[in-house]
Amino acid sequence: MPIYEYRCPNGHVFEVLQRMSDAQPEGCEVCGKGSLERVLHPVAIHYKGSGFYATDYGRGSRHQVKEAASDSGGESAKSESKKESSKSASD
User: Fold this and answer.
1) What pLDDT shows up at residue 89?
2) Relative to the CA of 56, which of 17, 33, 42, 50 has its CA 20 to 30 Å away?
């Protein structure tokens, strides 16, 4: 069973161990006032492991593939310019 935290209009905060299907308490345990408000806290998330899935924005495996393609494209452009310069020199 979860523990829920409630706050009354006077600022008292208390915890109640109850089922999810149980009704909210009628009044404050300290002063007896009604109209309680359930206090919610953010959930802590811990990422463990090597990182993200391939479909997420992870390590950038796509980025590595693009770099490899651009590197090979740059080398072919250099070799083509060398071929053109050798043709013009031989002419």
Assistant:
1) 53
2) 42
The pTM of the full predicted model, rounded to 2 decimals, is 0.46
In the chain, the number of structural domains is 1
pLDDT tens readout for residues 30-87: 898 888 999 998 888 877 766 666 666 655 555 565 666 666 555 555 555 555 555 5
Residue 55 belongs to some domain of the structure:
no
User: Is 53 within a domain?
Assistant: no
Number of Cβ atoms within 10 Å of the Cβ of 18: 14
Structural domain containing residue 7:
3-39
Q: Are 3 and 15 in contact (CB under 8 A)?
A: yes
What DSSP element (H or E) covers 18? Answer: none
Residue 34: inside a domain, yes or no? yes
Can you tell me whether residue 91 is helix, strand or coil? coil
Residue 20 in domain: yes
Please state, in angstroms and rounded to a whole number, the distance separating the CA atoms of residues 7 and 29. Answer: 10
